[in-house]
What does this fold into?
Amino acid sequence: MREASRDRLKAFLTLLPSIILIGVFVYGFIGETIWTSLTDWGGSGALSLTPEKNFIGLANYVELFTGVLGGGFRQDLVNAVYYSVMLLVGAVGLGMFIAILLDQKPKGEDVLRTIFLYPMSLSFIVSGTIWRWLLAPQGGLNVLPKYAGMEPLDFQWLSSTAAILEFNWQNLFQILLYVAAFLLILTGLWLLKKDSGMAVKRWLVPGIAVGAGAWLFGDLLPEALFMEETHGFNLATMGIIMATVWQYSGYTMALYLAGFNGISQDLRDAAMLDGASEVGYYRHVAIPMLKPITISAVIILSHISLKMFDLIFAMTGPDNAETGHPALNMYLTTFRANNFAQGAAIAIVLFLVAAMFIVPYLVSQYRQRGRR
It folds into this structure.
């Protein structure tokens, strides 16, 4: 017992400096940012040695989501959602496809793997500058058709003002309910073959109920809380998405390729002997076995998409409203407008959105360890 107590004391003392540093420089600063977001720190006297800070509660958050001056942040938040979705679909899908091709052991595999992984080694500033040249209105991709005898394109990759998938911000509650219903139903259909009872009870029925409630009673939701304004998917963000997918598809390729190489060759041979085709092997055997890698890639890429700053800054600059992002908005609000309280509020919103991806993953991992 004494030896066990000594070991615990030694372990605690060894970890104590790290605990103190993390407590002060991580959680302490998060707490300070939360407190700042609840004040009115900003304006002409914000940079004084003793700035005046008054507690105003959630006024900064209310302004961001419902106020007139928060319209830019709301569009940036919509852009961030599209950035995240497109990055996940593009980088995970393309990375998995390249990994499957390289898993066939083609000639020059090592060279190809290095080529596909190379963009990951570049900084966002470098790749952003390169892509800004490639997507220039009078050059780059727009003039490629000219070399094939066709008319050059005139698409404004980074400055287009056109938008699709537009919606009224007043309908936000109803849209979120529809999205939740869709995800619940989609998860239920995916789990239907594994456990039909659980899929119907926990996912399909609640999903149908939420969707029906949004359809029947959506007009009763408090639309007056939000501004009546239109937001959507700005086509100018396509250039940012292309550059991000190009840079991170090699990363997901490396993850999946390592996973494919870790699968026993005997398992692959057994699947082939049972009549599985190459497509069937990857669809029913290899890819399902790499579920942890997929979850890790989704978590990491989602976190990266919420911190996109340098790429957007390098490609379009800080003042292009069509390609805005909350991280860029936070920088401009805090350090250009000297509105530190509202900048802190934007930072906390990003922190909470990131926590929505990370915390469920950590909880599930903790539960899995507890069952072992």
Observations:
- Residues 143 and 152 are 5 Å apart (CA to CA).
